[in-house]
Amino acid sequence: xxxxxxSSESPYELLLKVAFLIPISHYFLGFLFLLSVFLYSFxxxxxxxxxxxxxxxxxxxxxFNSCCDLYQxxxxxxxxxxxxxxxxxxxxSPHLQTAFLQFFGRAPAxxxxxxxxxxxxxxxxxxxxxxxxxxxxxxxxxxDGVWSDDKSPIMLVIPGLTSDxxxxxxxxxxxxxxxxGWNVVVSNHRGLGGVSVTSDCFYNAGxxxxxRRVIDHLHTQYPQAPLFAxxxxxxxxxxxxxxxxxxxxxxxxxxxxxxxxxxxLICDRYINRRLVQRVYDRALAIGLKGYAKLHQTVMSxxxxxxxxxxxxxxRDFDHSSTRVLADLETVDTYYRKASCTSxxxxxxxxLLCVSALDDPVCTREAIPWDECRANKxxxxxxxxxxxxxxxxxxxxxxxxxxxxxxxxxxxxxNSSSLIHSKKMxxxxxxxxxxxxxxxxxxxxxTEDGLVTAFSNEPSGEVGSQQNEQPVExxxxxxxxxxxxxxxxxxxxxxxxxxxxxESTRLGDAGSKGPGKMLVTPEPDLDAVIVPVKxxxxxxxxxxxxxxxxxxxxxxxxxxxxxxxxxxxxFKKKLRNIFSLKR
Length: 582
Fold this sequence. Notes:
GO molecular function: monoacylglycerol lipase activity; short-chain carboxylesterase activity
Radius of gyration: 30 Å
Keywords: Membrane, Transmembrane, Transmembrane helix
Distance between the termini: 116 Å
Family: Belongs to the AB hydrolase superfamily. AB hydrolase 4 family.
Number of helices: 23
Pfam family, one: Hydrolase_4
Structural class: alpha/beta
């Protein structure tokens, strides 16, 4: 009877009674556990993975051409680039690395000497100098600038978006190189570093004219000093684009691009994909709006000020400001033309590129692996972790890994023979103005959010042959420059090697050269061999299968054809032998 009474009671009432018996502190601990699991996943922490490996980190991945002299003579001597990167244990997250740099940074004290550089359009740029004597003996009386006959290397630094010489990552790099005995000069963007905008021209991600003027000025003033350049974030995009535009005509003898966005269109899609990325988008938009408010008197006259005030993302700001100042129809057009990816093939000076695969701002999807591998003047170093411009290492997080990497690279390059060569080897790459993004006006966004470009050009044997042709040394690119109080885009004439046009030109030349060479293969044999070759090439290129396995596949694939053809071949041979005997 008692059992019947217990079973008749509602199970929910029993559960409720049991729940009241559990102490509140246990609920609190359970809530903290679930919150920790959520935050661990949300901010993409990797502390447990690092704990299992003893915080040894992961090896730095290097991508370069197999015939790259830059790796053999310079990068192979850099222990940092050939070693491992281990994050600070309590900063095992790309978001913690990025946020810690922004809010704390632990930057060393740098006492700059400012030089105001006047531009031809009436604008001004603040050049902040930091020399070895400024960090070693700051108490003595210092002279302005650097002696014109000084042979010490000069490193030009191009900051990121809305950053200046006072940013923590800039100070880390400048202090490190000044300690080495280098003269460091930070080229602040227009309107940043405490200077006003004195013309109707503003900077943007594709604006290379200011960097060109500063580099020419430094080379003219200090002709005996080797000139290096380092670009960071948006500054890296500007630097790589400038190097691609100039080719061998630049005064830069070596450069480094750190955390470059590479393709602004892909980065724009990425930064709006997830909630955590939208936080960065919002933060960058706030910084851009603050920059616009500093120069409201000029900006409100040239751009859509109402749209700038209402902007809640970088894209909104670019739509109301950057696009209007550049006189472009759409924001996507600006992103395509300002991206440096299409200029990588024409870089002719030693260039080190550093990117983190977990960068929360500049996605790994935009990294131009193939373009960097094809150019013999470029070495791409990627780390598994580090965030955006972070890469804090050590228990105290007082140093940045990429600063050590740049230090070793530039010092090794300065002592090598590469900077004395006037012209690097012409590389075999894609045409600098033809990328998958440029060939088609849109990108394909898959269901999982990945961004892939699709092209209008058909793929085939002809396309693969065109990609193997050398690029001309002519200056190519889109330069953004100020015209009549606004910024416009000017597309320079390009000279581009095209095998198809070359064949047509030779064919029309008559006696001056041979026409198109037509080969008529046997239809049956060609129909069998060509598909097999294409399959083997795809396997070798994408799957990286060994040649022994490919040979085995080729034998198995062609064995039915050879087996059916061999009896006919031997019968014909035997018939000829017997006919000769008769």
